[in-house]
Amino acid sequence: MSSSAKADQADPKQVNSRGRVIIASLIGTTIEFYDFYVYATAAVLVFPALFFPTADATTALLSSFAIFGVAFVARPLGSIVFGHFGDKVGRKGTLVASLLTMGIATFLIGCLPTALVPGWTFWAPALLVVMRFMQGLALGGEWSGAALLATENAPEGKRAIWGTFPQLGAPIGFILANGIFLWLSFGLSTDQFQSWGWRIPFLLSAVMVIIGLYVRLKLVETPAFQKVIDQGEVSKLPVGRVFKTSWRPLILGTFVMLATYVLFYLMTTFTLSYGTAPATLEAAKAKAEAAGKPMTADAIAAWVPGLGYTRNEFLIMLIIGVVFFGIFTLVSGPLAEKYGRRKTLIWVTSGIILFGFAFVPLFGAGTAGVMTLLVLGFTLMGLTFGPMGALLPELFPTNVRYTGSAISYNMSSILGAAVAPFIAVALWEAADGSPVLVGIYLSSMAVLTLISLLIMKETRDLDYNSNVS
Fold first, then answer.
1. Percent of the chain scoring above 90 in pLDDT
2. How far apart are CA 110 and CA 106, in angstroms?
3. For the chain, how far is it from start to end, CA to CA, in angstroms?
4. Res 5: pLDDT
5. Are 70 and 422 in contact (CB under 8 A)?
């Protein structure tokens, strides 16, 4: 870097302001999570029928979830690719690239022909897999960059608070994605929604990507990474260096995030599936016949009951629950700053373990019970997700921080989120329609997170902007 470039970086006018950091870190993750949730919602509501029209209802749903999981397989690769450039070239350019990748992939999903189109029975699902892989690749690099943008610009003693800025993108993106689906379902007939209405949320992502790019292109490099450049400590091969010098934080970070991932994808994808599944066999038969796919004898034998809510009813309930997710994400920052990341998360994770045993009684207590379960689950989600924006980056030295935090975050996505909906559906069926095994699964994963938290050290007071590997 030339001396003039360094001077520009040091110019006080070029320092990222608090408002710019908040908007850039928040809008990016909002767009990324919006894109991701648009697919997650479509995977339950329309993709089984559009991309797997010849399969029975359960097989089509599981196939849709399998493609949903492809993105999580891609995310660790994305963490390596984007982490490499984030630790070698800088945070700003890498964040722009991840946003573009996600936005283009999501837009193209909205343009895909479905398997109902003659000649596209194989190619439509295959192209959906490719686009889903690109989404995962992008998200593999997005979160860590946004978290570093916030925390590496944070004032002393405010990292956990500033680290909640990108975390808010998750609930906001969820509300936007599902709110649009809900609006479309009210404004369009079922046939219109199935035919073309489902494409609109994917195509609208282009507008938000343009806004996100505008904000991010105005950023300057973070002070912490600029210091690495000035000291000549930029890693030539960040992924090799992080595995050599920080393998223990990689493992701990992966399992620290495990309960968070399992909880979130059970509270969204699984509950939507369970909540909107017919409560009686007669209702299931009527729903299948209305879709033009009468249940076979095997499908009848394999059928398990759900809660019987309409799609719109349950989406409204989910959106209400996610509001608590957003509120308690903000609450978690000051708590993690005051009491420490480790202690705060130990208490929250203990709450998640207990929450797993509430699945059956609350799901069986009518609408009030279901709503209580959603509020409690999303409250715990906010409290566990919020501190991660500071905790995971704090586990790693500055010159491998992008790569290290990204790998931990996304390896956890495979162990937690990628398989969570699939395992939950299998456990739901194994228990003949009861969510009891799903709750036990959540509690078991939370125990692994609790063990990791008990092993790790507190990271609140470390020298965040000076340490290198």
1. 36
2. 7
3. 21
4. 40
5. no
pLDDT of 82 > 80? The answer is yes
In the predicted model, what is the mean pLDDT of the chain?
A: 86
pLDDT of residue 58: 67
Q: Per the structure block, which two tokens stand in for 384?
A: 């566990």
Helices 258-265/401-413 angle, 10° precision = 50
According to DSSP, residue 418 is labeled I
Q: Could you tell me if residue 45 is inside a domain?
A: yes
CB 411 within 8 A of CB 419: no
CATH code where residue 170 lies: 1.20.1250.20
Nearest CA-CA partner of 374 in 249, 469, 271: 271
The answer to whether 205 and 31 are in contact (CB under 8 A) is yes
Residue 466 falls inside a structural domain: no
Identify the residue whose tokens are 């949730």.
37
Confidence of residue 332 (pLDDT cuts 50, 70, 90): very high
Q: Tokens 């699964």 correspond to what residue?
A: 441
User: Is 258 among the domain residues?
Assistant: yes
Q: Is the pLDDT of residue 339 over 90?
A: yes
The domain in which residue 384 lies consists of 16-455
Say if CB 204 and CB 20 are below 8 A apart.
Answer: no
Nearby residues of 158 by Cβ (< 8 Å), 6 or more positions away: 337
Pure H helices in 55-189: 57-88, 91-109, 123-151, 159-162, 164-167, 169-187
d(CA 291, CA 446): 39
The total number of structural domains in the chain stands at 1
How far is residue 211's CA from residue 78's CA, in Å, rounded to a whole number?
Answer: 23
Are the beta carbons of 432 and 445 closer than 8 angstroms?
Answer: no
Distance of CA 467 to the CA centre of its chain: 29
Nearest residue to 135 via CA among 163, 168, 162, 108: 108
Q: Note the Cα 147 to chain centre separation in Å.
A: 14
Backbone torsions φ then ψ of 432, nearest 5 degrees: 55, 45
Q: Which two tokens stand for residue 417?
A: 């989120």
10 occurs within a structural domain? no
Q: Say if CB 153 and CB 222 are below 8 A apart.
A: yes
Q: Which of 56-60, 69-73, 148-152, 343-347 has the highest mean pLDDT?
A: 343-347
**Does pLDDT of 422 surpass 80?**
no
Rounded CA separation 393/145 (Å): 10
Between the CA of residue 111 and those of 121, 145, 203, 347, 379, what are the distances in Å?
A: 16, 29, 8, 45, 36
Element (DSSP H or E) covering residue 214: helix 199-216
Residue 392's pLDDT is 95
DSSP-assigned letter for residue 457: P
- pLDDT value for 3: 40
Task: Assess contact for 328 and 385: CB atoms under 8 A.
Answer: no
